Amino acid sequence: MAKKNKKEKSEDLNIEEDQSKLQEEKEEAPSEDEEKSEDEEVPSEGEEEKEDDELAKLKEDLEKKDEEIIELKSHIQRLQADFDNFRKQGEKQKQDLIRYANEGLIVKFIDIYEDMERALENSTNEEELREGLELIYSKMKNTLEKEGVEEIPAVGEKFDPFKHEALLTVDSPDHENNEIVDELMKGYTLKDKVIKYSKVRVCKKAKKEE
User: Which residue has the higher pLDDT, 103 or 160?
Assistant: First the structure.
């Protein structure tokens, strides 16, 4: 009986030793939260300063970009205003060019007009008046020729519907068919462009009866 008690005591001691070892191992083993916290890297002060510097630099870059955008918008607005002014000025110059296109020619005819006025005022007889008108006519003709104005040939020419306008027809034995017999009103060209058709009388031969 005493031996049995000793054996049971020995087993109890072994069990207590095993439980004590397990408790110690459990206490020594790190918990899951401790393992997680060890795995996570805690940023140092230097890294935090670096991140702050990068954020500050990004903010500065954004501010510079905003300033550049504002400057570009202002530049575009100035260009638009300059273009509008240029367009308006061009339109005004075009209108002035059309409005005063004949200014040079009119100035020349003003001189002729004044010559005619002087001839009428200073002529005491028909002969003087005629001489003055002949001088004015010659001056006017020279002015028109210098501007590129020429008379369209008519009498004796073949009728040309692009230059002549037939007002009358006549059966003339002295002229060929479609030949211009007479010029009723002169026609003119301005640098190869017809500005006034000659009004003429044209020969039209009657058809012979068979």
Answer: 160
> Identity (one letter) of the amino acid at 30?
P
Average pLDDT of the residues in 176-186: 92
Residues 186 and 198: their CA atoms lie apart, in Å, by 5
What does 20-42 look like in DSSP terms, one character per residue? HHHHHHHHHSPPHHHHHHHHSPP
- pLDDT (tens digit per residue) in 31-65: 555 554 455 555 566 777 777 778 888 888 888 88
Looking up tokens 């020729």 gives 145
In degrees, to the nearest 5, what angle opens at C-alpha 95 toward C-alphas 90 and 96?
95
d(CA 175, CA 153): 16
Instruction: Single out the residue of 141, 118, 143, 144 nearest to residue 131, CA to CA.
Output: 118
DSSP string, 41-67: PPPPHHHHHHHHHHHHHHHHHHHHHHH
CA of residue 57 relative to chain centroid, distance:
42
Residue 187, pLDDT score: 93
- Exposed, middle or buried, 209 (CB in 10 Å: 0-12/13-18/19+)? exposed
The reported pTM is: 0.52
- Supply angle C-alpha 86, 89, 90, rounded to 5: 85
